[in-house]
Amino acid sequence: MQATQKNVEIAIKGKWFRVPALEVNGKDIIVRGKWIRIARVEAEEWLESELEDPQGCVQVLKQQRSADLRADILSFAQKLPEIRPKYQYPVEWESIAAVRLTTFQEWWEGLPQETRKNVRRAQKRGVVVQVRSLDDDLIRDIQILNNDSPVRQGKVFTHFGKTLDQVRRDQQAFLDRCDYICAYHEKELIGLVKLIYRGDVASILTFLPKASHQDKRPANAMMAKAVELCAERKIQYLIFGKFNYGNKQHTPLREFKTRNGFEEVLAPRYYVPLTVKGVICVRLKLHRGLLGFLPHSVITFLVNTRAKLHAFKYEPV
Q1: Cα torsion for 227, 233, 237, 241, to the nearest 10°?
Q2: Quick one: which of 30, 220, 283, 317 has the fewest CB in 10 Å?
Q3: Biggest alpha carbon distance in the chain?
């Protein structure tokens, strides 16, 4: 198998970096981590197809002499709707938040009454949802939306305070197969969803309701539009990140997903050891990180503490 070494740009916590990568069968493989070096397909969750010929990729990675591209583990996932494991590599079940789609009406009728009321509340309170393409006007609106709050969901919001050029750079990916779902109230953008189409699957890349307009329920209105667009395209699954993040469970975001028809779908993710260290780490589950080891109660305490610290630090004077 041929592999081409190159440099690619990736976003880490809202900032762009150029990093070494291997192009294998049209996909860029990057390696991250300090103590445990894990190779992954860059932007894997937004691509239309999964990793082809993983055995060939394993061989290429084992032959690497560049320090930047030496890895202990190769991690790759299967793409929905294929959930039966195809390979004999060590596998773990990744918790995906997904809506299994048939028709919009079926999704709508399966929602809790309160969720349907929230969609109607948005309409009654003047929220208008539009599907737009990226242009200079939308980029300016997104910049204003980003600056609504420096803290979101208890974490520092990495897009707060960015320039127009930085916002434009952030939005350049997947423009040939995405929709921008925009919620407006009296010409003010109060919510944004960037929806990426991946064949028979669609994934939510950006979900950004404006906290100062939460009473107008833009999040519910945008989600209904996203489902409508997917149903029109005969999409099988609408994906919104993970359902559970390791042992981190019962979060407000997960509750929102559940109230909007998302459920947990378990899909195979493989962890292929490439070195002796990789073998040990996979056997001991060290690749899972802290969210895979700490109990939910400890994670909840740490998350709440972080949220309080950020709220205190960024609270308006």
Answers
A1: -60
A2: 317
A3: 62
Encode 290-308: b = buried (16+ Cβ within 10 Å), e = exposed: eeeebeeeebbeeeeeeee
**Distance separating alpha carbons of residues 23 and 61, to the nearest angstrom:** 11
Threshold 0.70, pTM exceeds: yes
d(CA 118, CA 124): 10
Cα separation of 250 and 84, whole Å?
Answer: 27
Q: How confident is the model at residue 66 (pLDDT cuts 50, 70, 90)?
A: confident
Name the one residue in this structure whose structure tokens are 């445990």: 36
What is the model's pLDDT at position 246?
Answer: 65
Whole-number pLDDT of residue 301? 53
Q: What b/e readout covers 165-186, taking b as 16+ CB neighbours within 10 angstroms? A: ebbbebbeebeeebbbbbbbbe
Describe the crossing of helices 113-124 and 218-232 by its angle, rounded to 10 degrees: 100
The residue behind tokens 């050891």 is 273
